[in-house]
Specification:
With about 120 residues, the protein is α+β, with helices and mostly antiparallel strands. About 35% of the residues lie in helices and about 25% in strands. It has a domain of about 70 residues: Roll (Nuclear Transport Factor 2, Chain: A). A hairpin with a 5-residue loop joins strand 2 and strand 3.
Length: about 120
């Protein structure tokens, strides 16, 4: 009887954990996706070197080197190519703050194109 009560108590937790982990998946139908080549071109226009683009959990995942020489891994929504997540491994002791002047120029450029700055 105790085992049944524990099972009933933990059952909602199991369902909630599944829902939380599914939130970072992309669920749009493949028919509406933009091509990987369009994403590659957008990244290369930023000066990034793209090593690989693959599909992971229904999202595009790109890996490569950014314009500052740092390794990056990013997830994109495949229909809009909106960035969902970005991880950067900074090189040679560089930190997340980076060059402030470079950041200001980037933010100004992004605002002029209608993107949100970090």
């Amino acid at each position: 009887m105790k085992a049944f009560i524990l099972f009933v108590l933990f059952l909602p937790i199991l369902f909630l954990s599944g829902a939380v982990s599914a939130d970072d998946d992309c669920t749009t139908p493949v028919e509406g996706w933009q091509s990987r080549e369009v994403l590659r071109q957008q990244l290369e226009q930023k000066g990034w070197e793209v090593h690989r683009i693959k599909v992971d959990d229904g999202c595009y995942e790109a890996k490569g080197i950014d314009s500052d020489g740092n390794k990056f891994e990013a997830s994109y929504e495949p229909t809009s190519l909106d960035i969902l997540e970005l991880k950067i491994k900074f090189q040679n002791g560089a930190d997340e703050m980076g060059d402030r002047e470079h950041d200001k120029k980037r933010d100004k450029k992004m605002k002029s194109k209608g993107h949100k700055a970090d």
